[in-house]
Amino acid sequence: MDAMSRPAVHLVDGSLYVFRAWHSMPDEFQDADGHPVNAVHGFTRFLCELLERVKPEHLAVAFDASLTTSFRNAIYPAYKANRELPPPDLERQFVLCREVALALGVPVLIDHTYEADDLIGSALWTLRGHGFRSVIVSADKDFGQLLGEDDEQWDYARNLRWGPAGVHEKLGVHPHQVADYLALCGDAVDNIPGVPGVGAKTAAALLAHFGSLDALLDRVDEVPFLRIRGAASCAAKLREHAEAARLYRRLTRIALDAPVPPEADALRRQRGEMEAMDALCERLRFGPLTRTRLKALLG
Description:
Keywords: DNA-binding, Hydrolase, Nuclease. Helices cover about 45% and strands about 10% of the residues. By secondary structure, the protein is an alpha/beta fold. The protein is elongated and about 65 Å long.
């Protein structure tokens, strides 16, 4: 069976699009109680457009609920410590965005130990076993490590799509090397420092030569002889920070064993709930255009 004839599951990085809506939508949207709902309005428009455009039979939207409680915080307390917790107004909107998705019949994935990335990775891994290819709807570079031969990542806002070859074009490493790459050069967004002095280009060059972080650390005595800038200093840093690099990889590697439904039908879009949607439309004070789109999607 060729790639395009295989069924596709769209796995949406919901938290990313809620945050984007929060930052991009004006503060003029309020619910019936006077609370701000700009992120809900923006996220709902995004989800409507995605459903109208793709008409996916199988999909899920994953949300983060583990900013301070994920298994990574237990391993490394500084993980994401550079991020401010969402303000109460945004926390409230995250809950409402999940309600909108569920009322539209869209399966929602959320867990307090695993992050949205892990839920998407585990769903992808599970559905691959059922013969599905996956389209990850997100701009996050971390997802590159999940892409198999037939999978795609879709930066929806820029309408850019890429497969495994695109990961190499962007980062200089192959999908199976992305976690190692991030462990070496660090990820400031998640407060992962990486190995001091090892930048993105050096990390990519090291992995091109050695293949993996484990092979690199096992053969670190070869590094001074490589044609990379500061090779001797790089080798010394790798020796000094070898255990830290292995720890960072435990943080950068997306888990594939998060609790997701084992059967493909659990990620099939359902009929949706018109009564629940009507109540949400009133509560969120959606305008007539959004209400019309939502009702059409509920059909």
